[in-house]
Amino acid sequence: MLHLTAFDAEDLGVISAQMQDAVVRFADVGYLKRQRRFALVANRFAWDRLPEKERRRTGVTFNGVTGVRRQGPQMPDGFTVLSLLAITFTPSGEEEGLGGTITLTFAAGHVIALDVEVIDVALDDLGPAWSTGMTPEHGS
């Protein structure tokens, strides 16, 4: 089981790699404005367990979030399943490594952008793994 934290763009890249191809129900994504926290629960493909083919229920929290924007072809309903491709960071340009935008890019043109004061992200596996017959593949 993984427990990872990210406080800079390099750390965030490690979390992104572990969350690549995670599937997320839109109902399992939320912004707690008062707590300045954005969170999601996903079924991630356990890249860290290869050659085993497993998925794990995983929670990811983003702290210090001051704003959230969503882009996409249409507003997903709660049952819409999104496939996460990458999590990236773009600094605001004011000071290196502090505030900026964390972008969650999903398949089919869905994007969630988080305005953050700093990079403060945690990934926690929430339970046991289960076998899957498929390994995610990406066409060239």
Tell me what you see in this structure.
It is a single chain. With 140 residues, the protein is mostly beta strands. It has one domain. Helix content is 8%, strand content 49%. It has one helix and eleven strands, in the order E-H-E-E-E-E-E-E-E-E-E-E. It has one helix at residues 9-19, and strands at 3-6, 23-25, 29-32, 37-45, 54-63, 65-71, 81-91, 100-106, 111-116, 121-125, 130-131. The strands form two sheets. Strands 1, 3, 4, 5, 10 and 11 form a six-stranded antiparallel β-sheet that branches. The radius of gyration is 15 Å and the shape is globular.
Which tags fit this structure?
140 residues; mainly beta; six-stranded antiparallel beta sheet; five-stranded antiparallel beta sheet; 11 strands; globular
Total strands: the figure is 11
Provide the helix percentage.
Answer: under 10%
Structural class estimated from helices and strands: mainly beta
Outline: globular
Order of helices and strands: EHEEEEEEEEEE
Radius of gyration: 15 Å
Estimate the mean pLDDT confidence: 92
- Strand percentage: over 45%
> Between the first and last Cα atoms, what is the distance in angstroms?
31 Å
> What is the domain total for the residues?
1
Low-confidence stretches: none
What can be said about the biggest beta sheet?
6 strands, antiparallel
**How many helix segments?**
1
